[in-house]
Write a structure and sequence with these properties.
This protein has about 650 residues and is an alpha+beta fold. It has 3 domains: about 1-215, alpha-galactosidase from lactobacil brevis (Beta-galactosidase, Chain A, domain 5, Distorted Sandwich); about 225-440, Aldolase class I (TIM Barrel, Alpha-Beta Barrel); about 570-650, Golgi alpha-mannosidase II (Immunoglobulin-like, Sandwich). The chain is about 20% helix and about 35% strand. The chain contains 11 helices and 38 strands.
Length: about 650
Amino acid sequence: MTALPLISWKMVWDEKGIHLAKENVAIWKDAFTEIELADGARRKPVGGKIDGAAMEWDFEGGLQVRHEFVEEAGWLRISTTLRNPTDAAVAVSRIHVLAGDVGSAPWEKIFSQSNTMTGKVGMFDLSGSFESDACSGLTDSAGTRALVAGFEKLDGAFYQLHIAADSGSFQVRPTCLREGIALAAGQELTISPLLIGAGESLSRLLEEYATLVGRELSARNSAETMTGWCSWYHYYGNENANDILANARALAASPLRGKLKVIQIDDGWNLPCNGHPRVWGDWFPGPKFPRGMRAVADELHDLGFQAGLWLAPFSVAKDSRLAADHPDWIVRAKNAETGLLDPAGPGHIFGLDLTHPEVLVWLKTTFDRVFHEWKFDYVKIDFLMHGILTGEHHDPTRTTAEAFRQGMRVIRECAGDRFILNCGSPLGPSIGLCDGMRIGPDVSGRWYAPVNLEQWPHGNCSIRAAAYPTLFRQWMHRVWWQNDPDCLIVRDGGVFFEIDAMTKFKEGMKADDLGVAESDFGLSRNEAEFWVRAIWFTGGMDIVSEVWSELSPERKRLLARAFPPHQYRVRWLDYYEYPDVCVLQTVEAPLMVGLFNLSEEIREMSFPRARLGDAAEWTEWLSGETLTWDGDTAHFPALEPRSARIWMAGRG
């Protein structure tokens, strides 16, 4: 048994693997690194040694791995370098870094997330298996003990943590995805360091992790929260230039004047007509914008707004001129049935090969036109996952994450200091290249839409689905980018284009009960207030998608309460008794506590007063309710299903 002393961390190695402890508390044990090759073979270590503050392993087949251990501000950073001293190239699929057992603590809850805005995101009971992108966190329900593990440099590859919970044993397997790229003879590869942090508070550990990653990737942090109006959730692509300008004029004359920065034109502006098949890739105005995009941008500027435009720049539709003129620009993947290479991408939407030099030139031409000829100040770039499709690439030595960043850098350089909102985007490789990030699914004028629950456990196209990542990814906000929770909707009834869009959506999706009747749409008072409170308190982007003239006076007043956006940093209270209730509190003054009940049950919650500060009197931010506490326990009023409250210390 050999020990490597650090400061508060200690590493011990024996025949079972590496064992990590912090301040003499076992954290990670029986850990070893494994290399998975493209042909499915797995290489395991056959010997190893301690070398100063490092561990070196020899693997079956001649490969070598070196881990270096450094402690910084209580975090253990483990660097990993893979060497190929053999005389033949080796195609590497995955590198599993120190897969081990963290079952020595009473873990009850897990934070897990997908690598984009949809998928499995939130706090869950720790049972079964989880696959979390980039990082994951474990905690007890009382929020008194926590562990976070995550990768630090998210620009060179995609990273996952696989967690399997079974009968009190918790196996964790941190993984670097190398996508079968060959490691040449004599070559070495250094992947992202793995960070491990342990302490009392899961929320603080995730904040610290985000700060370390953001620093490494030079994250962009805008001084002011972006606000505005978006056309999508009323028109669903059926708007024309007159609709855009009419809404801009109405908002300029409304109580929101001066509070909304951008008017953003969403998908549909480049179509020949409504209902026409997508022509993504052909980014020129259709007949619905007969004067062109510069004329619309100029009028928006005259009204005092920034001009925003939606594009899907890494996507190519089957019916586009781009697909016909440049088939060699499209990523192609082997068809399992025919064995032939076909354009890669679902639903006849293909992905551009971002390693192709001509594609990068085309991207520059496209965005120079948008920013410099048409004078747009803001872009929402969507369906960016098409930029990481696997298949045949012009440059086979690049990971999809590296290719993605290559394309994003072109757009960033064209944009300069203009605002870039990523949507439908991989998260980690975007850090440092975008200003805002959609971190959850689409909203709609419905509380819940059970779409594809196997992959999206909270559904999609609904307030509830968007709320989970809004609340449970708030630790990313103003550290990696501005979080975009998706649009602010408060309507109490359906709109024609929404109902029509959901009808078509249901036809193509696996759904338990989407519903398309007009009576299915519209938010109750509790539901609308929940969403206003969630967007305001988490402090992310505040983008309205309502036609002002169609709202009732009551809903107009409610919508207006979301402005100006909340500027104070918030974090979880570290109370995880109910996975479908999130409790947030401000980190600095003024002292505020937000309770968000995503469940269908009434929730009654109490906390030790010591966790909430000394205030005895509290006022609810929106309703003006008041409450007073005596004793050592803070008892909150019962919280109805689908509702939220934000309590401010003191009398309003």
